[in-house]
């Protein structure tokens, strides 16, 4: 007997049906915003991640050398791949480019609640617009995706920040700071002790007093005070941009789901502007459910023309936790419209009946195991068949079938030629 | 600039929309037969394939050692994974177990037309029935999947064979033959020269005269002659089973798509009974489009209770070739229901209009790039918007929007409060 790998999951039909409902909903929301599906490879050259995604992700890559000597990695995230795709066809693609896809990614890290070595995300990105409307459309997509799943404004919030406010403030505090390292420290601040956080800021080049100052600055909602503190165009422009994004989010009807939260930094190095993370408002799930943000420099760093970009990537596993916590996780069960039950030598009529019902779009099962009446009825029950069509030798001799409602147990005899007849979805009630 | 890996593909939205239509159709047909979706990992332990899938596949695996020292492989096919899953929950799962899934697989082989290193299949399997109805249901699913895609009986055929007829005949010809090696030779016979094929049979233990005899035997449609030639229960039972499967296929309405073809062997070692391959009837595509068959011993060899199984796995790339050849490949294009065009400071009304239309399920885009009237109209055209809703400052001052039919170019002014109003899909005609 072979075992499943640690951090990998098998999804059996009950659970998969709920996951499919979740994926369909996330994708349907994206389609309605005019995002278009793309398909992307599982493997990329390792150097693409080594060059671009920052240390943290590279340590966790599944990497290997293929039989042709190529250094490969299983994709740990989508962004570098879609950036590569934009560069490859930058002349042909009409902007804004609006793409989505749902697929697995892989990171070698310790599995924990809601986090696996193989994990699925729906990535949603806009390339080619630097306008605040693009950031706001990503926020609006993400908010609609959540409410379309049955969540309300009480149950989640998007904590919104801006990389240039963070970076500009850090530089204003100490011009010698390693901004990337300091931002990674801020990103971790909620998950670690204050002392450890301040140690990380210190390693990034700040004194412990300056670390305290950063703490105080990031704790404010008063953006104009930050502009004043920094006194730089960089922070002033970033504050203005963040305010414009929030104003657009207001017009887009999703301002109510957002909270200003400058401690929100996102771990990846390539973010440049607005960043945000989705949190469980009740605090029961302490980690971010998912996040997103603007990454205006990535396409150019991949050798493309300067192309601003912004995106979000709901992860199925953490999102599932939130939906279960909020009691709106889709039902885990199988549904079947018809079971066609064969008694005696009736396979031809049973098969034709099943065929007719399937042609009308219904989910139909029939016996493929040469089972008894009782065993078939039990199976029909196990798959939650709504209606069982009993095709019995004796009934057939009278030119009849029996239609059985599986909830009430009521049944009725029907002439063979009347079923399904011209009915789209014939049920017991149509003949009783 | 980073390059895509050889044998891997990026799917941009036009092509992806056609692929999505293909996948949706393959899966919808499976759902109507009562197959249930499962989700499976990309990685498995290498030994699972080394032990079970035969030499041919192992040579082509993407394998590596993970950071925990595990020998892993990217899945080259689904069957071993679902067999593992059946064994893991064999007590709980109600039989027959009917599963489907669509996902990528990976093999390190030379890319050629319709064959890639990363390739997608929709796998459809039944576990727990040894009856001919199960084989026939797989054939019926496969035939319906093809006709649901727009193909007709003139355009494809399922060449059906039986592993035990093949094996039994080979043993009857020469009891010392290496049956597996000889079956692999038969599987290759259509793709190689006769002399090379006979060399392979010779390597499997036959004389060249016996190889000629095998050729003659496999060329017949007269199954009873084969039973007589072999004179063994094995062949007699296999012939009876194959005839029972074809009779069930007749009842299931799909006999017309099948052809008896004993040269069809399938390459993988684990097949045990009926096997079949789908071919382009015109012969333009010479290789098999996809295949399937019965593998009754695999679950037990994985440490499970004896569990008969049969399945099929249409591959998207070869199937795409067939659909393109038959001119029924889904259209490669984007569709958009509405573009909401902003002129001047009208973002709030435009956003509310887009929101209302999306809430009705429509695909709606609006400006996120601060573009001119002309640039927006051009973009609306590029995304094939059916209707453009023009939200202009001057119109709005009169309490009006303009609804423009993008095909005719006709437009009409409409009071803001009437659009969309209580209409589900308001168009120009509703107001003209």
UniProtKB/TrEMBL annotation, chains A, B:
Domain of life (superkingdom): Archaea
Q: Where are the transmembrane segments?
A: none
| GO MF term set | ATP binding; histidine-tRNA ligase activity
What are the Aminoacyl-transfer RNA synthetases class-II family profile domain coordinates in residue numbering?
A: 1-432
Give GO BP annotations, semicolon-separated: histidyl-tRNA aminoacylation; L-histidine biosynthetic process
Q: What is its EC number?
A: 6.1.1.21
Quote the protein name from its UniProt record.
Histidine--tRNA ligase
